[in-house]
Design brief:
Length: 210
């Protein structure tokens, strides 16, 4: 997966899009991401760990089994894929990506998207080569989508209100309490309690008061 100009994240992305496998190991048993981390190419690690092939999402745009309708309308696949593959996981960034696309910024569209994300999360946890990082990411984005739905339904200022809530700091020190609570809530709701990543996050966060 590594081109001659080692560490070029754009070329890493191009190779992934061309079908390069991320779980193949070299002669010393390391994957591309592990080798990139070993030599300090953290941008490449981020690209590899955030890559999600478009065809894996397109699977949900076709009716499966007894379904008459696909779980994800074709028109939503592109905007959703853009969010899935973003490397900036700040909740405000994700809400802005939703807000900038009129197809996505609707209750029904977000409901379909978060349900697909939950299915992908489940598949990541139940597949032979479990991918806890990707599962947690899908779950986290799903939680933000669900909160977007709440604001679209209940607030006149809609997604702008959500963004303001995320950015608002408390009076004494400017700390964004709502944002912290949202992130903690998404971790708490992760449905796979046995996940090592979840346990590490809980151990790190639980002792820290907001």
């Amino acid at each position: 997966i590594f081109p001659p100009n080692l560490g070029n994240k754009e070329i890493t992305w191009m190779m992934l899009e061309a079908g390069a496998e991320t779980d193949v190991v070299n002669s010393v048993g390391r994957t591309a991401a592990q080798m990139a981390a070993f030599v300090g190419q953290h941008d490449c690690v981020t690209v590899i760990n955030n890559f999600f092939p478009r065809e894996r999402l397109d699977y949900y745009t076709k009716p499966q089994g007894l379904d008459k309708e696909p779980k994800l309308p074709v028109k939503l696949a592109g905007p959703l894929h853009k969010i899935i593959t973003t490397t900036n996981m700040h909740p405000v960034k994700i809400v802005l990506l939703v807000k900038e696309n009129p197809l996505l910024a609707e209750v029904e569209a977000l409901q379909k998207c978060y349900r697909v994300l939950d299915l992908i999360c489940e598949k990541c946890m139940k597949q032979k080569d479990m991918n806890e990082v990707l599962a947690m990411k899908m779950h986290y984005i799903s939680c933000i989508f669900q909160k977007c739905i709440t604001f679209l339904k209940e607030r006149e200022d809609k997604l702008d209100g959500f963004i303001k809530s995320l950015l608002k700091g408390r009076d004494k020190d400017g700390f964004p309490v709502y944002q912290e609570k949202l992130i903690r809530e998404s971790i708490r709701k992760f449905p796979y309690c046995e996940a090592t990543l979840l346990q590490q996050l809980v151990r790190s966060i639980a002792p820290v008061e907001i």
